[in-house]
# Entry
Amino acid sequence: MNNIKSTFSIKDLENLTGIKAHTIRIWEKRYNLLQPERTDTNIRYYSLVNLQKLLNISYLNNNGYKISKIASLNVKEIPELVKEVAKNDHTNSYSIDTFKLSMLNFDQKLFYDTYESLIKEKSFIDIFYQDFIPLLSEIGMLWQTDTITPAHEHFLTSLIRQKILVNTEKIQSQNQEKTDKVFVLYLPDNEVHELGLMIINYQIVASGHKSIFLGQSVPIEGLKDLLNYYDDITFLSYFTVKPEKEYISDYLKEFSEKILVKKSIKFWVLGRMLNELDLNTLPKQIIPFDSIEHLVKNL
# Structure
């Protein structure tokens, strides 16, 4: 059975394209740009073809083309014009729209083709910050508004995870460790959002430091053994949803007592759960960061 989402409400189109539903209706009526179907109760719904066309129309409109001009083009001319404009466009809107279409279609080839076109023009780390980060931010909002399903989100993040792993392996094979400093990267119990931690790992390796990546859902007790191997350790974690706000202070207290047993041991931490803390009360060995970029500057 084909479970790909193939029909969309006008609210879905608004969420996916950023064009207000009121404007979409006007464009339909005045320019016949889209041809929605209707349910038995007379509610509009739109095909994937309609969505792709609207993304293209939105892209051209944002690049200075008037709706009346776009409406005069035939069905084949619109995507051709988009490709032509995209060649000289230094923004990331076209790639983000294409990545979104790959997600909605569960289309790995489209994802890979879009990525390959980007990697010819810029570095992997630029793609991550300029394309993947804004894309993931949009995907989070689409998931919250029920425009997409968890399956869509997991499909996309798994492909981005692959790219991080491939590029990390590439620099690991090329770079030599330049310092004795050791970073141990992990996520706390029941925390599974690891893309941010993975890109930090990439940049630690690229900086020539030793990185030990432990991944998801690691208990504090599981970290103690590392203390027997290294003296200068910086533990690093990303608190996206865990520990929960009522437990985060107790978690950091336990971490301090069991792990921060020497002054040479540090704990770098970031993530939105830090908003639940008074950061001024943290021990000196626990260093909070408000973004990946801020953390990377301190490597």
